[in-house]
Amino acid sequence: MPWPSRKRDKGAVADKKEPDAKIAKTKEETPDKEEEEKSTKPPAGSSKSGWKNWKKTKESDSGGEESKITYCHWLLKSEPESRLEKGVDVKFSIDDLKAQPNQTTFWDGVRNYQARNFLRAMKLGQQAFFYHSNCKEPGIVGIVKIVKEAYPDHTQFDQKDPHYDSSSRKENPKWSMVDVQFVRMTKRFIPLSEIKAHHLAHKADGGPLKNMMLFTRQRLSIQPLTQEEFDFVLSLEDEKPH
What span, in angstroms and rounded, lies between the C-alpha atoms of 179 and 29? Predict the structure, then answer.
């Protein structure tokens, strides 16, 4: 019996700790029309962030244009607390992943076109942050890796599944999923509030988290990360909590 869906794109809400966040509206009701990323100019402001003292392992492309950004890591949101969706509990924490055979499972239930396209872009062996979402204290709890690239999500054809899609056809499936495997827990829990503080500072100073999709596209449960974003967030696990 498959595990409940790891996500809920269609009715997603921003994390509870972000009441002031601007919600990016998804386009679930427009089949075959994929969402386009919109670049925004970071506002001016002051920063007390110490990111400039952090040694980057790779220099950013000059110009910083969106077209030059290369995504090679990911952030996967999942709900660690029980919540019923069409009578099915969609809870799935990192401990649930660790309890799976070979600590591996499929990442199903994504019903947003942009998130689906990110799933399809994932490559074998790439790593992702496992992020606990829609809970009292959202944040990053561990690291997983992609162990099987995108293939049809079987839940789209299951009428008993909360993410059943009657418009999808087996000869041309709309939705995809990947398999992920637990790698390790982060050395400490990295809360959303801490990541957000760095993001706001970097928007002003041009740091690596200035365009992090966790804050520009909050509703997406599958989010790409650049090497610089991944490395900076990972470096936070060695720092004392603020």
Answer: 27
Place of tokens 């990947």: 178
Give the integer Cα–Cα distance in Å for 114 and 28.
10
* Residue 59 phi, psi dihedral angles, 5° rounding: -75, 145
Outline where DSSP puts E strands in the chain: 71-78, 84-85, 88-89, 104-107, 127-132, 139-152, 176-191, 222-226
Segment 113-116 long-range contacts (CB within 8 Å, at least 24 positions apart): 113/27, 113/28, 113/33, 113/34, 113/35, 114/26, 114/34, 114/35, 114/37, 114/217, 114/220, 115/7, 115/9, 115/220, 115/221, 115/222, 116/174, 116/175, 116/176, 116/222
User: What DSSP string describes 212-231?
Assistant: -HHHHSTT-SEEEEEHHHHH
The pTM score is 0.77
Give the phi and the psi of residue 96 in degrees, each rounded to 5: -65, -40
Let me know: does 153 contact 109? Beta carbons within 8 Å: yes
Distances (CA, A) of 131 to 1, 9, 46, 219: 24, 15, 29, 13
Q: What is the block-wise mean pLDDT of the chain (242 residues), using blocks of 10 residues? A: 50 48 31 36 39 45 54 97 94 98 98 97 98 97 98 97 96 98 98 97 96 95 98 96 74
CATH code for the structural domain at 71-237: 3.10.590.10
- Of 192, 84, 185, 94, the C-alpha closest to 137 is 192
CA pair distance 136, 129, nearest whole angstrom: 19
